[in-house]
């Protein structure tokens, strides 16, 4: 075996051909499964898109680098399923551009964080993480509660998402700004039509606990509370861990 390798090293053309053959085999193994992607990716007919407020929160999550410490992909290992819930399915990230699966876990995986804690818990955690998790090394994001959310360009954000395949309608894009205010201010006139456009399960409430304004804290908490809840595909049937 080693003798063949030594001979190839001395033969430029032979060595080049061997590299091409091996690279071709590796490339085929990587590329071939993509031709069956439509058959292997699960379907989720009940999948809903992010609301403008949730999408704004996702943008803030990316801007602040939260993905560097928190993954959003539960693997099919028993200990992960027992700790975090059903393992992640490809279809759950179909509207994520870019995807935030990750592999670095300075903090826990948050793929199924939505609904696990109250809004008040999230606000307290973001203001001073050690108030709720004493051993946390996460920095404070209290300034998000003082930063007014810029919402007048969210229609363009939705339009950009539609360009890469997210099925936002013209009505959703046209009402993006008003829907943003409506989701965080349930008693305002802006909230009318939001459920019709995004579904009856859309959460409409004051996320940061400060009435009368929509902050970046509202947006980020709204995003965190929807993680793992855009579809229930992973629960039907309930995903089981591998040994």
TrEMBL record:
Coiled coil: none
One Pfam family matching this protein: FixO
Species in which this protein is naturally found: Microvirga brassicacearum
Keywords, sorted A to Z: Heme, Iron, Membrane, Metal-binding, Oxidoreductase, Transmembrane, Transmembrane helix
Sequence ranges assigned to domain Cytochrome c in this UniProt record: 52-184
Keyword Membrane: yes
Cited InterPro entries: Cyt_c-like_dom (IPR009056), Cyt_c-like_dom_sf (IPR036909), Cyt_c_oxidase_monohaem-su/FixO (IPR003468)
PROSITE patterns: CYTC (PS51007)
Transmembrane feature ranges: 12-35
Record protein name field: Cytochrome-c oxidase, cbb3-type subunit II
EC number per UniProt: 1.9.3.1
GO molecular function: electron transfer activity; heme binding; metal ion binding; oxidoreductase activity
Top-level class of the enzyme under EC nomenclature: oxidoreductase
């Amino acid at each position: 075996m080693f003798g063949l390798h030594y001979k190839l090293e001395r033969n430029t053309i032979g060595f080049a051909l061997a590299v091409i053959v091996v690279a071709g085999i590796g490339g085929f193994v990587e590329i071939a499964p993509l031709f069956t992607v439509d058959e292997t990716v699960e379907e989720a007919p009940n999948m809903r898109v992010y609301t403008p407020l949730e999408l704004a929160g996702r943008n803030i999550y990316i801007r602040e680098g939260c993905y560097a410490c928190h993954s959003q992909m539960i693997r099919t290992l028993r200990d992960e399923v027992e700790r975090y819930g059903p393992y992640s399915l490809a279809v759950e990230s179909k509207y994520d551009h870019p995807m935030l699966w990750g592999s670095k876990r300075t903090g826990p995986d948050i793929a199924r964080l939505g609904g696990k804690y109250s809004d008040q818990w999230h606000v307290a955690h973001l203001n001073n993480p050690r108030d709720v998790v004493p051993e946390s090394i996460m920095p404070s994001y209290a300034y998000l509660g003082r930063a007014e959310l810029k919402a007048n360009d969210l229609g363009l954000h939705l339009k950009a998402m539609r360009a890469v395949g997210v099925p936002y309608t013209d009505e959703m894009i046209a009402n993006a700004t008003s829907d943003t205010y409506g989701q965080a201010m349930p008693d305002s006139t802006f909230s009318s039509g939001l459920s019709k456009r995004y579904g009856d399960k859309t959460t409409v409430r004051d996320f940061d606990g400060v009435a009368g304004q929509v902050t970046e804290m509202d947006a980020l908490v709204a995003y965190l509370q929807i993680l793992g809840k855009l579809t229930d595909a992973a629960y039907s049937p309930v995903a089981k861990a591998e040994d």
